[in-house]
Design a protein that fits this description.
Blueprint (H helix, E strand, L loop, with lengths): L1 E3 L8 E4 L2 E11 L7 E8 L5 E7 L3 E5 L2 E11 L2 E6 L5 E4 L1 H4 L11 E7 L2 E6 L3 E9 L13 E5 L4 E4 L8 E5 L5 E4 L1
Antiparallel strand pairs: 1-6, 2-3, 2-6, 3-4, 4-5, 7-8, 7-10, 8-9, 10-11, 12-13, 12-15, 13-14, 15-16
């Protein structure tokens, strides 16, 4: 679908020079002389490299729609992570590079959204938060309970997160999957 450069928004996927790019930022600037331009910051979906491109605002660009389908996480092995399509039960394997940091929070049976283009998986979106049990936490240091200091803790799955001092082993906590930050306790 062809769209004008001035209509691009953050999160849009475009086909530019034969590659798929996701728009990170689009700023329209109108210099005192000449036509307005769209300064687009974008990232290559396959390689991860970034680029800044300047388009004329009325220039048309090919916008791509990604298929977004629900999949259930089954297991991980040396080849990657295996997911099953929730409607047709087909299984696919996706590498950790495509999932990125949130892969640490995948739990067996978790429903995720897999984004693909022409049957090639390009990204996996986990739920915004997950609830995990703290399996190891450092003890509270006397005198630090009144401050906003955080302490490291390990949660099931092996990920290390920073938690408030009152969190102990066995406590179930909610964590943001995007960056691994503490949200609250269950």
């Amino acid at each position: 679908m062809k769209v004008n450069a001035n209509t691009l928004r953050s999160g849009n996927v475009i086909d530019y020079n034969g590659k798929l790019w996701i728009v990170i930022k689009n700023e329209i600037s109108a210099p005192g002389k000449g036509a307005a331009v769209a300064q687009v910051e974008m990232r290559d979906l396959r390689s991860g490299s970034k680029d800044n491109v300047r388009f004329r605002t009325q220039e048309t660009i090919e916008r791509v729609r990604l298929e977004q389908e629900d999949h259930q996480f089954l297991f991980s092995d040396s080849d990657g992570f295996t997911f099953m399509h929730t409607a047709n039960y087909e299984q696919i394997s996706i590498s950790k590079d495509i999932i990125g940091y949130p892969a640490a929070f995948l739990q067996e049976g978790m429903i995720v959204e897999v984004e693909s283009y022409e049957d090639e998986p390009l990204g996996v979106k986990l739920p915004d938060t997950v609830t995990l049990e703290v399996i190891e936490a450092e003890p509270v240091v006397k005198g630090q309970t009144a401050t906003t200091s955080y302490k490291p803790a390990n949660v099931e799955g092996g990920e290390r997160v920073m938690v408030p001092p009152h969190i102990d082993v066995g406590t179930r906590i909610t964590i943001r999957t995007e960056d691994g930050s503490y949200v609250g306790k269950e």
